[in-house]
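Exercise 3.2. Students should predict the tertiary structure of the chain below and write it as structure tokens, then compare their answer with the key that follows.

Predict this chain's 3D structure.
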Amino acid sequence: MREQNKQKEQRKQKEQNRQSLHLDSQLIHAPGDGDPAFGDVVVPIHLTTTYEQPACGQPIRYDYSRGGNPTRQVLEDQIAVLEGGSHGYAFGSGMAAITATLSLFSPGDGVLVPNNVYGGTYRVLERYFKGFGLDYQIVDFADIEAVARALRQSRGAIKALLFESPTNPLLTVVDIAALSELAHEYGALAVVDNTFMTPYLQRPLELGADVVLHSATKYLGGHSDVIAGLVAVGDKALAKRLHFIQYATGGILSPFDSYLLTRGIKTLGVRLERACTSAQALAAWLEEQPQVARVFYPGLAHHPGHDIQITQARNGGALVSFELTAGVDARMVATSLRVIALAESLGAVESLLCHPATMTHASVPAPLRAQMGISDQLLRLSVGIEHAADLRADLAGALAHAT
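Answer key:
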């Protein structure tokens, strides 16, 4: 008993020490990682589905892994800490995380989304939640007055603003603090998809948001080998509701995938430092190419959202979108690359190029894509950690080939 108390006190001291660490160090040392029984320095994988109880109906901490698992708990506590929240939840995909969050609302409620909404979010709202009576409205979130007008006209029906900054794929920057304040003024939640920035570059809860979402498949995992979604909140009552939805619907992340994600998060800082530096250089280079009509990157000083970006994020991120001139075959550019892979997803160590009109936003009707500004000439580049000169040469060859 004395030894157990000693270990408990040591764990408590260790957790207190973690809280004083810089963010870069917190990425490496997750709350509750390791194993006090054997001294593991990595998160053990607890594959068990159930747990032996000392008496009927008296579990020590866990009873069934749908409701909680030690490996998943480390990850969930980690995202809560990294985002500056109180609770975190891990799901089987980013869309499962979005679905669980939208399940907070009831038939007749409304959700406001930006005119540059992610294709998967549009799809689940239009083809799934609409059937359950959850309404949605598309508004330009860069226009604060347009958002305020929609909230006023809804007369309380809008219960959430669901948005990301920068947006996918046009990298429009919106003011998270101003939108969160506006949402609260009208009794709505501010739900921010922070996939593109991650807590390493941007922390929406500290800017006033209520819920932060991640497709952890992307930068947090970082190696194209795990599908996962994360949610972080700061309000205990909201956390309780989300935990019930997670437990009741069962869209949980497996212990092994939870382990992979905690492993990926360890290198998030160094990966992003390299990728963001390369993205900044490539964005500037692309602007000089005659085959490129326009570059979308919030790290560029003339980007419309640059001033907001530098106040709410560390830098411009590692994604660059660019629109080709009319004489260049965008699909030929996409298929002429030798280093950069033509693939959906983003945020991995390898660079990926996407043609949004036929890939990520193919489910969005063409007229709506046109309204969003997503043309057939638009390409989205997720910059990885390869040498920037190799990426530049690859892009240069593909642009020349398609001209």
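Discussion points: The two ends are 75 Å apart (CA to CA). The longest helix spans residues 268-287.
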